[in-house]
Write a structure and sequence with these properties.
The chain has two domains: 283 residues, Immunoglobulins (Immunoglobulin-like); 156 residues, Immunoglobulin-like. Helices cover 8% and strands 39% of the residues. Strands 8, 9, 10, 11, 12, 13, 14, 15, 16 and 17 form a ten-stranded mixed sheet that branches. A six-stranded mixed sheet has the order 21-24-19-18-26-27, with helices on one face. A five-stranded antiparallel sheet has the order 22-23-20-25-28, with no helix packed on it.
Length: 461
């Protein structure tokens, strides 16, 4: 596979084949090889959002990938910018655990040590520190949230809440039972100690799925046993905390009834915080309510959101009359009464090398954004950077090329309302694009590079 990708493969049986990278070099090829040979295997993405060793979620097979790491020695990967996310390398918004749930993937949550020693859950040296360091010029780092002021060499900072463990609810202590539990997502993740945590929704165990014919109150039961006093347990529904259970004790069991089932697709999971900072997460339970509208975002691939015809049309308009323009193309689409797509494409002309930009979204229930053609590899000591604060502000700093790069944005707004979206893009931090196209028409943006999208730009075709 791509040397930048990290997926760990576990076999149920011994003496299984070793697939060489020169023959099996994509995840899809791996999944196909396993399937053709009838091999029982678990493929677990390893620190999915880290640019240094990422996961390409355009290639995912739920038959082999039922779970993903939510934390390890490298940090916590629940959501971008959480207090313990990794600062030793660039991160890829869109690849964190909450992003994956929002994009429609059904993945259980586990943790792992990544200590590279045969003592599970223990790292070799609790005092490991960076040996070498060098300063990074901050003018090369316009999105300071992405890069540390010190580039680490020869080591990296540990997750402060180590060691990390994968917890499994298995019928018995055998390889077959543990394997089956992983397949059914009956797993949980802990950071800092061997904490026990569990969740049931309408008597459906975590990792499972539940279908309701019509909206009715959902009964939730959560439990935990800590290694120290538990400060609180948070119940998260569709990436928002809907209930906080205070504790201040080591063992907790609570019941909660969710009466607000307003969407067709829902998921619930628990997050636990101890007084000493140690944490744990349950896997979700997914609940489908058939009489409610679909307000979910099933954005599973970056490439499928940029149809070739649209890219070709943007190229034709930007390169008209034989000139090589810097080009910015914005395309909008209204799927139904509450779902909207925005695609932002940019390419290099003859002037600048870099494009910095910002998108601000107003009037939304949720949104998802994925980069298109961004490179995690460093050019002139700077990689293509992209941040998403989770609250409607996206920023990027990208090396321009003759091939288009850009963002796919999917916005869900209140029914029969339209989002307001501001797009601002500048070349080398100061120059507006020479040619800006909005839905096939050349426009003149504000002198600071801003384009405002409102109702007239989302009219149903």
């Amino acid at each position: 596979m791509d040397p930048g990708e990290h997926r760990n493969v576990y076999y149920l049986e011994d003496s299984m084949p070793v697939f060489r990278q020169d023959k099996i070099n994509t995840p899809s090829m791996l999944f196909e090889a396993l399937s053709k040979r009838g091999i029982e295997a678990l493929v677990i993405p390893h620190h999915s959002p880290l640019a240094v060793a990422y996961t390409n979620w355009n290639e995912h097979d739920p038959r082999f990938e039922p779970v993903v790491e939510i934390c390890s020695l490298w940090g916590v990967f629940e959501y971008f910018g959480n207090p313990h996310y990794c600062r030793a390398t660039d991160s890829l918004p869109g690849n964190f655990y909450r992003d994956l749930l929002k994009r429609g993937f059904k993945l259980g949550a586990i943790a792992s040590s990544d200590s590279h020693i045969n003592n599970p859950g223990v790292y070799k040296d609790p005092d490991l520190r960076c040996v070498f360091k060098r300063e990074i010029k901050q003018d090369k780092n316009p999105l300071s949230i992405k890069l540390p002021k010190i580039r680490l060499e020869g080591g990296f900072p540990l997750n402060p809440i180590n060691p990390c463990y994968a917890g499994v609810y298995a019928e018995e202590l055998t390889r077959e039972a543990i394997f089956e539990a992983f397949k059914k997502r009956r797993v949980f993740a802990t950071a800092g100690g061997k904490i026990l945590i569990g969740l049931m929704v309408n008597d459906r165990f975590m990792g499972g799925e539940l279908t309701l014919e019509k909206a009715e109150p959902v009964r939730i039961e959560g439990w935990a046993e800590g290694t120290d006093r538990i400060e609180r347990i948070e119940l998260i529904k569709n990436n928002r905390v809907i209930h906080v259970e205070p504790a201040d004790r080591r063992e907790v069991r609570f019941h909660f009834e969710d009466e607000r089932i307003n969407e067709r697709y829902n998921y619930y999971y628990l997050r636990l915080i101890q007084v000493d900072g140690k944490m744990a997460w349950s896997s979700p339970v997914w609940v489908t309510c058939l009489d409610k509208p679909d307000l979910s975002i099933h954005l599973t691939s970056t490439s499928e959101k940029f149809p070739k015809s649209q890219v070709d049309e943007a190229r034709r308009l930007i390169l008209s009359r034989g000139r090589t323009y810097e080009g910015l193309a914005i395309l909008t689409e209204r799927e139904d009464s509450c779902k909207f797509k925005v695609r932002v494409l940019f390419r290099r002309g003859v002037r600048g090398r870099w494009c910095s930009g910002k998108i601000r979204i107003y009037n939304y229930i949720r949104y998802s954004a994925l980069p298109f053609n961004f490179s995690p590899h460093r050019i002139d000591d700077v990689s293509d950077l992209f941040t998403d604060d989770g609250y409607g502000t996206l920023e990027w700093f990208v090396n321009l090329s003759e091939e288009f790069k850009g963002l796919s944005l999917y916005v869900v707004s209140p029914i029969d309302e339209v989002p307001k979206i501001e797009v601002k893009a500048l070349i080398d931090d100061s120059l507006p694009f020479e040619k800006t196209i909005l839905n096939g028409e050349i426009i003149r943006p504000h002198e600071n590079g801003k384009v405002v999208l409102n109702e007239e730009h989302f009219r149903r075709l």
